[in-house]
Automatic annotation (TrEMBL):
This is GDP-mannose pyrophosphatase. CDD domains: NUDIX_ADPRase_Ndx2. InterPro entries: NUDIX_hydrolase-like_dom_sf (IPR015797), NUDIX_hydrolase_dom (IPR000086). It comes from Tunturiibacter lichenicola. GO terms for biological process: nucleoside phosphate metabolic process; ribose phosphate metabolic process. Belongs to the Nudix hydrolase family. NudK subfamily.
Length: 186
């Protein structure tokens, strides 16, 4: 490895996040400190509805404390558990945040969120065959707003900077590549 860990100590912990400070040694022998945020696995779900009217996705709007503003994004989250069954997590988050259930869940890939500072996997799922039900948000998600938008409107929101969540943009880009490959194979 280019960087060797000399020592590690946890400097902060809450139910959602752990922060550690590592003393490291680089390949050139110089030592330094690296701060790492450890978080349990998460998922992001692309709830896609395709019908005679066109293609639609369901978005969530919520207040994000770290940036002090409300933003639109795809449903996503975690359960504060180190070990999860990715599809169960995705189905649970989708139902919890939107009330939607899906006939089919397709794992598109697993990404790392902000790996320059954070150690968190995010499973990217495509949800199809949607059924609308009642949402059951966590206490921290009491302000969620769910909105169904056309794919054209969703992509415009990305290009206009209305959607700034990098995980939502990355998940959508991944889906578009997956779909393009699939169409070429058919």
């Amino acid at each position: 490895m280019a960087i060797k860990t000399i020592s590690s100590r946890e400097v902060y912990r809450n139910p959602w996040t752990r922060v550690r400070e590592d003393v490291i040694e680089r390949a050139n022998g110089k030592r330094g400190i690296y701060g790492v945020v450890d978080k349990d696995p998460a998922c992001i779900v692309i709830p896609l509805e395709v019908g005679a009217e066109g293609e639609f996705v369901y978005l969530i709007e919520q207040f994000r404390y770290t940036v002090g503003a409300r933003h639109w994004e795809l449903p996503q989250g975690g359960w504060e558990l180190a070990e999860v069954v990715p599809e169960e997590l995705a189905r649970g988050e989708l139902r919890e945040e939107t009330g939607l259930t899906a006939e089919r869940m397709t794992l598109l890939s697993t990404l790392q969120i902000a790996y320059g500072v954070m150690n968190q996997r995010q499973y990217v799922f495509l949800a199809e065959g949607l059924t609308i039900g009642k949402a059951d948000p966590d206490a921290e998600e009491s302000d969620l707003v769910v909105k169904r938008v056309s794919v054209v409107e969703f992509e415009a929101m990305i290009l206009e900077g209305t959607i700034v969540d990098n995980c939502s943009v990355a998940a959508w880009g991944l889906y578009r590549l997956w779909r393009e490959r699939r169409e070429l194979e058919l």
